[in-house]
Each structure stands twice: as C-alpha cells, then as structure tokens.
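The following block was generated as part of the benchmark described in Methods. Ligand: zinc ion.
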Amino acid sequence: MKYTGSCHCGAVSFAAEGMIEQGITCNCSICHKRGSVLAFLPASAVTISGEERSTSYKFNKRVIDHHFCATCGILPYARGAMPDGTPMVALNLRCVDGLDLSTIKTVAYDGASH
Ligand SMILES: [Zn+2]
C-alpha cells in the first residue's frame, strides 16, 4: 500500500510504502496532549517533503525527534530508531490522506510508565 499525508497547510508532507495495520495511541506526556495516533515504519519506506519547513522537538530521553510544521503546528511524523538501531519514522495517522481511523485497530501503549 502507498500512503500520502501532510500537515494542515501542506508545507510538510510524506509518502510511505508499507502496510499500516494498527495505530498506536500513547499516554505519554506529549502524545496525550497532541492526540496523535502513530504507525511505525522503517525510515527507508518513507519519503518526507518539506522537512526543512518543520521544527523538531526532543524531550525526556531525546531519542525521538518530533517534527511539526513551523507554519501550521501540526505534527505529521517523528523520527527515531527501532530497538535494533534501524532508523524509523512514526507517521501520525491523523495526517494520512483519506484514512478512516475507525477502520484501523488502535492499540494503547503505556508510554507514561516507560
Ligand atoms: Zn503546515
């Protein structure tokens, strides 16, 4: 499957190839506030356009780079690494074009305790 998506104003967009079978909701301090639903893909499967127009934010252990649009403030993706060190991109499924979130299984992750 191919997926495309963007922030609200369109300055930052992505194209991804893979199978999005579930979304992760997380109760950590940042996910809780922004209400994102994330799907993790290898970075090699994702092409980002307009990354230079995003601002990134790191906190806590600073291992995840949260990229949000400097113009509209929406977060389309974050960058990090899989446990084995492979670069990964977490897509915000709320930013994927035409994706009906009610058709996707969501799994709650207890990030607040980690
Ligand atoms: Zn934007």
